[in-house]
Each structure stands twice: as structure tokens, then as C-alpha cells.
Design goal:
heterodimer; A: mainly beta; Immunoglobulin-like; 6-stranded mixed sheet; 5-stranded antiparallel sheet; B: 4-stranded antiparallel sheet; 0% helix; globular
């Protein structure tokens, strides 16, 4: 079983829709959770960083963590064509190697105007 | 603010030639530094990371090596490139504390002919 599972998509939604992106993880020792956005031919850009269960909001983006289910989500409200990108989840905080992150494989999102 | 520079953006090299990719970080001290390779649909593969000058940890045995000659400089090298070394190489930094998010450069697209 992979440490982090992420649906690769692709996911296409109309402009203005709410987008839900998800990851599951297997190790309950993971405590820190991140979401990155990656445009084509660019490096990943940090969107959200959280270490507690519950919701964290930043503008149109909400990160949700459910540690009991080992499930994390990123919601995008009022989606825009500029949100079209690949989204990667990342987690950290295992019992060893806490300088490192474990990444999902990414979900490719397209917002249709 | 902190910035990360990675060059070149694109590189085409013949099989058997040497490689040197450079990454520098500005605006922070004692960062952790990372080299990743990203293959299409396969996520980010951590190649090397460093927590200090001259300290290199290798994650995957391969044809590549890394060096950190200065606090904010990280170099990825190879003596003889293989066709399988083609890919998108990303450098990243994080604060030198546990479980910190990483911040990425814009990558080098390496093609081996």
C-alpha cells in the first residue's frame, strides 16, 4: 500500500463550480499536511500548510484534514480557468525522516470557461 | 523574502556526457535542500537531500550525485548521462526545522539524446 494515495484524474469542471481534491494516507504518525499547485513546466507552489484536524481557509481555498479517517481534502470555491493545474498533496511527520515530505502523484484539474 | 534559483531551464545532452545542475537559495540561512525528479504521471521522486554543508543523503542509488559546497548552493551532477536520466529535475528548500513545507524552483527539463 502506498503511503499517500491521490486520484490522478483528470478532473474537468465548469468555471464557477466547487472543486474537491482528495488524498488518503496510511500512516497515522503523519501530522503535517500540505497542498501544492503545479502549472505545466513549472515547479510546485505551496498553497496550504496545516497540522491540525479541521478546516483551514485561505481565500477561495479550504484545506480539510480528518486524521481519524486519514483523509485530506482541498476545496476550491468559485473555480477559475487560472486554477487549471496539477494539485499535489504532501504529508510529513512520520517517526523518522521528518525532513522529508511524502507526495501524492497529483490530480490534473481543468476548469472549463 | 526567500527565493530559489535553478538553471538552466532546459538542457539537451548526449548520452555519456557529464551533467551539472545548480540551485541557489537567497534570503534564508541553513536551509534544508532537496533534489527531485518528476516523471509524467509518477509524482515526485526524492533523489538527494541535505541538512548542511557537505551533508548529503541519497534516497535512490543511481547514476547521479549531489554536492553542497556552500550553505545555500546545491549541485546535481553526473559523470556519464544515461537515456534513463531524462526528466524534469526540481530543486527545493525548507527551513532547517522538522516538518516544514518545501519551496520549489521552476525546474530543469533534461533531455538525453
Amino acid at each position: 500500500q502506498k503511503e499517500v494515495e491521490q486520484d490522478p484524474g483528470p478532473l474537468s469542471v465548469p468555471e464557477g463550480a466547487i472543486v474537491s481534491l482528495n488524498c488518503t494516507y496510511s500512516n497515522s504518525a503523519f501530522q503535517y499536511f500540505m497542498w501544492y499547485r503545479q502549472y505545466s513546466r513549472k515547479g510546485p507552489e505551496l498553497l496550504m500548510y496545516t497540522y491540525s484536524s479541521g478546516n483551514k481557509e485561505d481565500g477561495r481555498f479550504t484545506a480539510q484534514v480528518d486524521k481519524s479517517s486519514k483523509y485530506i481534502s482541498l476545496f476550491i470555491r468559485d473555480s477559475q480557468p487560472s486554477d487549471s493545474a496539477t494539485y499535489l498533496c504532501a504529508i510529513s511527520g512520520s517517526n523518522f525522516g521528518n525532513e522529508k515530505l511524502t507526495f501524492g502523484t497529483g490530480t490534473r484539474l481543468t476548469i472549463i470557461p | 523574502s526567500q527565493t530559489i534559483h535553478q538553471w538552466p531551464a532546459t538542457l539537451v545532452q548526449p548520452v555519456g556526457s557529464p551533467l551539472s545542475l545548480e540551485c541557489t537559495v537567497e534570503g534564508t540561512s541553513n536551509p534544508n535542500l532537496y533534489w527531485y525528479r518528476q516523471a509524467a504521471g509518477r509524482g515526485l521522486q526524492l533523489l538527494f537531500y541535505s541538512v548542511g554543508i557537505g551533508q548529503i543523503s541519497s534516497e535512490v542509488p543511481q547514476n547521479l550525485s549531489a554536492s553542497r559546497p556552500q550553505d545555500r548552493q546545491f549541485i546535481l551532477s553526473s559523470k556519464k548521462l544515461l537515456l534513463s536520466d531524462s526528466g524534469f529535475y526540481l530543486c527545493a528548500w525548507s527551513r532547517g526545522l522538522p516538518n516544514m513545507p518545501q519551496h520549489f524552483g521552476d525546474g530543469t527539463r533534461l533531455s538525453i539524446l
